[in-house]
Amino acid sequence: MASFEVRTDLAVEEQEQISGEISGVSLREWRGESSDLKWSQVRVLNNGGAKTLGKPVGAYLTLEMKPLPDSGQGLRIAAARELARQIRVLFRQMSGDRYPTSVLVTGLGNQLVTADSLGPKTVGSLHVTRHVDRAASVGTKTSLSALSPGVMAQTGMETAEILRGVIRETRPDLLIVIDALAARSVARLGTTIQLTDTGIRPGSGVGNHRHELSAESLGLPVLAIGVPTVVGAAAIVHDTINAILRAPGHSAASAAAAATDPDADGFFRMLRQIKAMDPDEQYEWIRRLTEPECGSLYVTPPNIDEIVGDLSDIIAESIHQAIFPDLDPEDER
C-alpha cells in the first residue's frame, strides 16, 4: 500500500480498499428489517489485522441507509430500533454480559460548526435520568447522564482530561462517545452510522489527532457512535474520475475524440493511465495534484443542518431504547 494517509474514520472503507481476504479481519453483511437498511460488521481479530487495516482490534458495525431527507418517518423509526438492538448487544459484550447500570454519553464536537455538531445535538436530545430517583426513571435501573465538553479552542483542555475528572466523580459503568467523522466516499455522507467497541480518537479523519478515548485511556468500556459529515476534496475528484472511467461507451468516446481532436488524445491517455493504477495509487496521484491548489480541503453537503438534525434524533432515540427498553415494546433485555 502507499505510504500516505487516506483520511477516513470508517473501518468498512478501509476494508474496501484492500482486495481479497485480509488475514486477521472478518467481514459479515446483512439486511435490516427494512430493505433500505444494510449492516456491515468488520471485526479486527488480532494485531496483524489491526496493522493491515489501521484500526484497533475490535468490532466495527456500519449501518447504511437511504438519504434521510428523501425518506419517510418509517425509515427513521426502523433505523433507531436497529441501532438500539446492536447497542444492547455491544453493551453486554463490553460489560462481560452484565448490563450497565450507569451510562455516560459524551457528545464531541463544536456546536457552532454544523458539520461538527452531531455530538452536542445528540446530547441535547437525550432525556437524562441520573439526577432523579432511578426507581421512577422510565421503569429501569439504568441511569443516563450526558455532557458536551466542547473543543480545545473553547476550553483549553483535552476532552480526555475533562472526561477523566467526570468519570472519577460519577463512576459510570460505560461511556458512549458520539462524534462526526470523515469519509472517503461522498455517497456515505449522512447515510452511514458506525458503532465500535474500540473507542475513538477525535479528529483523526481530518488529520487533527487528539488523545484517544478508549478503555485503556479512561478505565471503562467505551462505545463510539459516529456519522461521516465531511469528505476530502481529493476523494471527490477520485470518485468523479472513476465515474468517468465506469461510464458506458468510455472507450469508444475516447477513440472518437482522439480521431477528431489531437488535444483530446492526451486527456484520454491520462484517463487510461489512471485506470491502470490501483485505488491507492489513484488517490495518491490525485491528492498530490489537488492539495497544492486546494490545501487539505474538506467538503460537506449543502443540507448538512437537516442531515445532522435527523441523525442526532435517530441516535438519541436509539440510546433511549437501548437503555430504557420499555420505550421499544418489540424488544426485551
How does this model look, in words?
With 333 residues, the protein is an alpha/beta fold. Helices cover 41% and strands 19% of the residues. It is built from 12 helices and 9 strands. The chain starts with 10 loop residues before the first helix and ends in a 10-residue tail after the last helix.
Q: How many β-strand runs?
A: 9
Q: What proportion of the residues is helical, as a percent range?
A: 40-55%
Low-confidence stretches: 1-6
Number of helices: 12
Distance between the termini: 44 Å
Radius of gyration: 22 Å
Please tell me the overall pLDDT: 83
In this structure, how is the largest beta sheet organized? Answer: 9 strands, mixed
Q: TL;DR?
A:
The protein has helices at 11-16, 47-53, 73-94, 118-124, 152-155, 159-170, 215-218, 233-246, 250-260, 262-275, 279-294, 304-323, and strands at 25-31, 37-44, 58-65, 102-107, 143-147, 174-183, 192-196, 222-232, 298-299. It has 333 residues and is α/β, with parallel strands linked by helices. The longest helix is centred in the first third of the chain and has 22 residues, at 73-94.
Write the layout of secondary structure elements.
Elements (H helix, E strand, L loop, with lengths): L10 H6 L8 E7 L5 E8 L2 H7 L4 E8 L7 H22 L7 E6 L10 H7 L18 E5 L4 H4 L3 H12 L3 E10 L8 E5 L18 H4 L3 E11 H14 L3 H11 L1 H14 L3 H16 L3 E2 L4 H20 L10
Parallel strand pairs: 4-5, 4-6, 6-8
Antiparallel strand pairs: 1-2, 2-3, 3-7, 7-8, 8-9
